[in-house]
Amino acid sequence: MSSSESPKVSASLPPKKPEIDRYDLVIVGEVGDWTPLLAGYAAGLQGLNVKTILSETRRQSPFAVSHVGNGEIRENARLILGDDLANRLWSFSLANRERLSSLAREVSILDESGPLLWFAHGEREKKLAKASTGNYAELSSLADLLKQNELVFDSILKEPATLIDNVSWTKTLSSCQPPATHCRRVLSIERQKTMESRIVIEGEGGFSELSASLVVILSESIPSELFPSLRDKLIPVTLSSFEYQTTQKMPNMTYALFHMGADFSVKKGQRCFLGSFRNLFEDKAVGIHNKVDPRTKEGVKWYFASLGWIDEQEEPRPYVDVHAITCDGLPLVGSLPEHPGVYVVAGFAARRENYIFEVVHVLVNAIAGKADFDPLSPFSTKRFL
Q: How far is 350 from 364, CA to CA, in rounded Å?
């Protein structure tokens, strides 16, 4: 280099920020739950650029057992909700059942159906328990009970009963769409000046973020964790269920329901999953817990051992499922008033399967501009304002 030439100096530039992945729609849910995958599948059919994020969660029961459809009396719902709303919910339930059947055919999912056994109160129930090794001819005597108690939202628990196997549904729906992103937790969802949402997640490799025009949260616990305004509207409750080896006395069935649906049994091969909804409306269930409720465990063990369906000495495999309840008992579905770009789908009070197929269909089609939100108005997030 000659003396007249100036040396070249390399400018020290600040590191370039990594590009943030942007999507039309981000769906937030929990690992082990197939409903976010259901929404992702439906959104993909509408041509939306969609990303599904699944946060780590507790050990959920492998089988979905819906509370409604196993004990709510339609006339009681009319007294509480009024004729118009009760009728709208009834119609919504019927549409939900058709949507389930259509989806099962569409994705070729195995529809595991079998007998649904109903047990009455008092002496008739004791009689059936004593006949647990017989042919259950006494079940025909329960026809009058079913006629008297027309079920409100019985879109899942019909005769024969449809078994929602969480593992099978998750596997099937996962194969129909791009892989979901798993993370330890969703840290925040913030509204940007561009009106988009910025989502920050914590994964194995640290923190990452992405951006979306719209966000749908399908979870019973995540919404109230991220948005304080929902904490007095969504009350989280943790329900316990238990996996046992069956005995020869357990009849051939898919579901058995007791005490107007307060207690349930789900049979899968030589295993059964037992639980109770009794503490759903009791203080012992309130909150998000990682351990099963000992009161429920003892009650379930005592009751089903008395039927001879399980060995009382066996230590069951426990599961906890987090649900949420709203003050009027109906789900919460819609955008947040303080963040219109975020939609919440929660508050099903263990009744999700009786709503979720039609809820997802209507919501995704409305977001895509191909349907109206009106069918979801009974569940509006604005009804508590």
A: 22
Report pLDDT digits (tens) over 174-208. 999 999 999 999 999 999 888 899 999 998 888 99
Cβ–Cβ under 8 Å, residues 250 and 309: yes
pTM: 0.82
Contact, 166 vs 60, CB < 8 A?
yes
pLDDT tens digits for range 55-72: 987 667 777 766 444 334
Asked whether residue 10 carries a pLDDT value surpassing 50, the answer given is no
| Beta partners for residue 301, in sequence order | none
Contact between 271 and 246 under an 8 Å Cβ cutoff? The reply is yes
- The phi, psi pair for 54, rounded to 5°, reads -120, 120
Instruction: List, for residues 134-143, the tens digit of each pLDDT value.
Output: 433 443 443 3
Tokens of 276: 């109770």
Distance CA 68, CA 71 (A): 6
Domain ranges of the chain: 21-384
Provide the strand spans (E) within the chain: 21-30, 50-55, 63-64, 112-114, 116-118, 161-165, 181-183, 185-191, 197-203, 206-218, 235-245, 255-258, 263-268, 271-276, 317-325, 332-336, 339-346
Q: What is the CATH architecture assignment of 21-384? A: 3-Layer(bba) Sandwich (3.50)
Of 6, 4, 1, 48, give the one whose Cα is nearest residue 27.
Answer: 48
* CA gap 111, 101 in Å, rounded: 9
